[in-house]
Fold these 2 entries.
Entry 1:
Amino acid sequence: MRQDAWMIVFRKELVDALRDRRSLLLAFLFCWLGPLLAAVLSYTVPQPGLLPAFLLVAAFTAAMPLAIDSMAGERERGSLEPLLLNAVPPAELVVGKWLAIVALSLAGVVFNLVCTAIAVYATPLGNLPAASLLWMCATVAPLCILASGLQLLISTFARSHKEANSYLSFLTLVPMLIGILGEFFPGRLWWLSAIIPVLGQQRMLSGLVHGHALHLPWLLAAGVCSILGGLIAVAANARLLRSEKVVFGR
Amino acid sequence: MTQCKFFRRAETIPTAMIQIENVHKAFGNIAAVDGITFTAQDGAITGLVGPNGSGKTTTLRLMTGLSRADKGRVLVDGLNPAEQPIHARHRIGALTDSLGNYPRLTAREHLQYFGELQGVGEEELQPRISQLIDQFDLSAIADRRAQGFSQGERMKVALARAIVHDPPNVLLDEPGNGLDVLSARTLRALLAGFRAAGKCVIISSHVMAEIAALCDQVVIILRGRVAAQGVPEELLRSTGTSNLEEAFVALTV
């Protein structure tokens, strides 16, 4: 029985990423900065509003090294052409790589939330029940799907490892800025801000950490939009791999 | 899946060979391949020789279907790789010029990964990997990561990986680059083995001496066109030279 190609690629990419210890360590270092800062500040002025920004960033940073390595890196070391020479549709390869990035990104989010739980338990950070943490996870999970799709697409588009790194660092500014600025505009959530990826998640996370209830239809709408965006990015990526310019570099 | 019966026995397929018919390929204004025609037979080694930038790599890429011809036709065992890339790739093992090892995977994992992707069943794959490790003399590095491999080791891993599904056609792009005498000798022995097994082997090179020792047929490519082709002796006669190196120079200048 032949395994699905995406499964084979998924497994290989995860093994590869886990062996790249330094990149992995650095990426996950970012993931607990938010809870750490919030915990330290909680002894002076409790700032739970810090948590959403860092959680959003975690969804983007945890899998960034893998996103760079699995396309831009693959091309730079000359292994993309041999990989595409296997009798497998390129779309399956893209899906495998994308899901590996999603898995790492989700791991980063979960790691961030576990650290948050520890901070809430150990410091006077505020009242954040376990249920809220689970809702936060459900809010950000679809964003991981979108972030991974975009990161892989940009990595495919980039001409080199270095270029991919610059672009993706820039992409990470989006959740960072929206996360920080969002705290200064504690407005109501309305439909347009709910369905805009990152912004919608920021609004909902902000509500959760300040003790408001989550409006379930918004959660679903935001989730569907992010997942759709992720799928579009993956489809675009598979298309991009049909271009000779992209495969052989420019 | 059907690929196993698909890529075994090359000899049962009447058109088992690689045919290149008046193929053109341009990048912008530059014609990389400008009307190349030749046929590579099964059980023979065909050498593509030409200076750097003459269109050898582009010609090989057209055979794998990763690059599409602007004009003309490529047939791999009767299949057009531009139209049926998946079927054609089952029948091709290609060594690219950049080798492309994964630094964090071991030699064995390279074979495992590509074997699985090519759809070789698990019960066939393990014996096949052991056989390749023996045949390519990789046992000392089989479970080491590719990070610190020498050029010869990298080439052997890349070649073993490319033919893990035992394809009837083997394409090698500048396999001799950077190899020491011993590795080059190993490579020649492997290629002779492919020929004896009835495979259609195409090897590109800019080193005439490498080709002379190996090939049954030589195709000399200059600026995207075939300057001369034939068995080595024929080329010597037509250019009035005593060795292939001089024949190559006589045609190039």
Entry 2:
Amino acid sequence: MPLIEITNLCRKFGNLTAVDSLNLEIGEGEVFGLLGPNGAGKTTTLLMLTTLLAPTSGTAVVNGYNIALQPDLVRKSIGIVFQDPSSDETLTGYENLKLHGLLYDMPPDLREERIAEVLALVDLLPRKDDLVRKYSGGMRRRLELARGLMHHPKILFLDEPTLGLDPQTREHIWDYVKKLAREKKITIILTTHYMDEADRLCHRIAIIDQGKVSVLGTPRQLKQEVGGDIIHLVAPGCNPDRFRDLPYVKNVREDDDGISITVQDAARHLQEILKVAGPVDSVEVRPMTLENVFLHHTGRAIREGAPEGSWADKAMQAGARR
Amino acid sequence: MSDLRGIYALWYREFKVFQRERSRLVASVANPLLWLLIIGGGLGSVLSFGGINFLSFLFPGILLQTALFSAVFFGVYIVWDKKIDFLKEVLVSPLSRTSIFVGKILGGSTDTIIQLAILFVFGYLFSLTNIITGISFTPVSVAVAISFLFVTTVGLVSIGLILGSQMESPEGFQLVSSFLVTPMFFLSGALFPINNLPGWLTPFVLANPATYAVDGLRGTLVGLHQFNIGLDFLVTCIFAGVMILLGTYAFRHMRL
């Protein structure tokens, strides 16, 4: 029995279909990634699963509860870290966590214990009594992560959990997410447009494009399905079509700086490819990544989506409050 | 009830923010004091109603003015919470929408009641120094006045929250709320007695719930009133009750 079961979930905003007949099953203890460019419908899906947005049609069952009929019970089972700043900057870090503990009806002892635990985890203990206004964007993000984890939800939703964070903090958060899934058996659903993040963290990934699942599987499966390696040629005057008929070539793409050829086994076929190509300026063999998988399935690079305001911008906007 | 801690959480947040924003408190108390001393003092030199000096006549009106502006304006903070994701953090918690509304009312009312209490203290000091005469500061009159102010404030905070839950921008909130608050203030009898108004004005005054709060307050503090004080209190309570119901409905159907 899956922990989350999404059936024909749709959400329209006027003429725009943000989520289009989504069907997914997510099992207990799974770290599941919704991967896609900005505007693909990931956040909209998350808002519906967390009962903050009503679906236009279709439904979902979260932890055995229907999102439309039993929203209160759904909310008791979940935690969420939003994409935009959602802490009160006129309060200190500690006070924001205390507020969260109270909202989730935690008794004082447990609350204090958890606050200390999560603050230590995100390295904010020394700054806990500073106003959030004085935090950097990264610190604020860490605080909100700590908050989402504080009540040990059965299912944790992370909306772009490491957006705008430095590499060190990202590693730290990834480690913790893995640990949570492994030791506490928390089911984690995260959205991301970082391929490496999805690859490192997720047991299974759904690549979402224009509100639909375009492909679903483990990162390994997805990469294997697309197959092999990529040979990248910079060869002006070389027609990419001449590679298409070769039996071991799976895909040929022309991009700004050259031609990308997906082949079964680059080490074996490199020489033949070069022979067909004729004179080349440079050649490079790249391992298959999720970036290529995405490209393969959607025909577009993931960063081509409509740009959104960065997290840091939103934090600045929020600063204008009061 | 498992929502009690959550309600306390919302109150706790509003109170902390209020404590930290000293300038807000100073401005919100200084403004009505200026009204009282300058308008009241100035007109008081030539005006009195029913044997009561205008300055004393104005004091209950100024209390209502403070409650009105401070409490309705409180609704703007929910618009700000919407602009960032803080409101989502609250809405996604297990707390019911009704409890969220109750927590917000308590938070907003606390802010307003503290301001009113400070004005009361100033009124008492002015009384002691004979700047204002004729206001009765007995334990009973103060208790009744505070009851009036509390119930009125709860109703007015609800109005602010209802508006805030429907509005998208703080600028829009300012426009709509001042469109509502200004006539409520001028038509309440806070500034003038309502027994001799031109006929066309009377229905507006009678339909304004703030009228009964002012009448009750003035009856209690300076002994001048048009209606039975029990009736005043009843109307004020009904007003607050209706606003709470409307607010609960508005919060249940609030969109993000």
